[in-house]
Specification:
It comes from Streptomyces avidinii. The chain is mainly alpha-helical. The chain contains 16 helices and 6 strands. It folds into 2 domains: about 270 residues, no CATH class; about 70 residues, no CATH class.
Amino acid sequence: MTETGFEKVPARDRRRFPGISSRAYEHPADRSALVALRKLSGFDTVFKALSGLLPERSLRLLFLSESVRVGETQFPHLHAMLRDACYILDLEKVPQMYVQQDPNPNAMCIGLDEPIIVVTTGLVELLDEEEMRAVVGHEVGHALSGHAVYRTILLFLTNLAMKVAWIPLGNVAIMTIVTALREWFRKSELSADRAGLLVGQDVQASMRGLMKIAGGNHLHEMNVDAFLAQAEEYESAGDLRDSVLKILNLLPRTHPFTTVRAAELKKWAESRDHQRIMDGHYPRREDDKDTSVTDSFRQSAAHYADTVRTSKDPLLKLVGDIAGGAGDLGGRLRDKFTGAAAAGGSGTGTAAGPEGKGGATEQG
């Protein structure tokens, strides 16, 4: 058996996607950034020079010496899942995969020319076969998209920000870029979740896996519908103060919150885009070079506009209302924060009681 062959593929009947482009499953914000990068002439040369400043080779040696490399004689069931995921997404070269001793459930895909997938023992012991299959597909999705490029830049800039923290405004400028990259990073995780679903083709297994990552191996104590309801409550509950706290909680994170990931994946699983892929209608890798950067950014902008329009978050609802000419900004902000009810739509208000309109509602 060769590293690029697929002679030993699990017998379970699942769809395969020959020649599929990562654009098929990428989140619009993720896709637009990737398309732009692929269009930059000379970017690969510059980035490889930049990557020499990072300890990628050291990490490869570290995993080789301190972790267990997955193969036919070590973790063979993970080896079969990895080859199956590459077969389904038509990734020709199977990445190396390692299992690292760590009780915390985690997985990652690192490296540039030759990505490496690393999963922890905590994750292997936590998930069942189909849940793990979705995780392996998630990481293969990262490899197919080339997400390691952004991840490496993010690591470099984060390290640089710490070194130049003493320079006036220098750290501010770099951290602005880091914050934008983290926003991309979070969207790339949503893209990879979709890739995991395309590989596993079992939305319930994907939901269970995310739920276990949040609450541990206690399925008999958890419920997928109730877990998804938490995401709904998180989005819509509270007032503008809660909206600000959500932003502050999210900014330093590289991953979206787990309940949000589950809700986003379920929404995509029920979408027409997902159904078209399953029916065999999807963008092909051979057409990536002809993809329009302008169209990709337009789709990304449309997605964010739709998010603002449909969101139940108090701050995003306010932004949407203001954009639609719903009233005076200062008055509405004061009303939201103080709990005052608007009087006659003039932007002035009086104190509201417990049943007043100061809090968020469940209406979209």
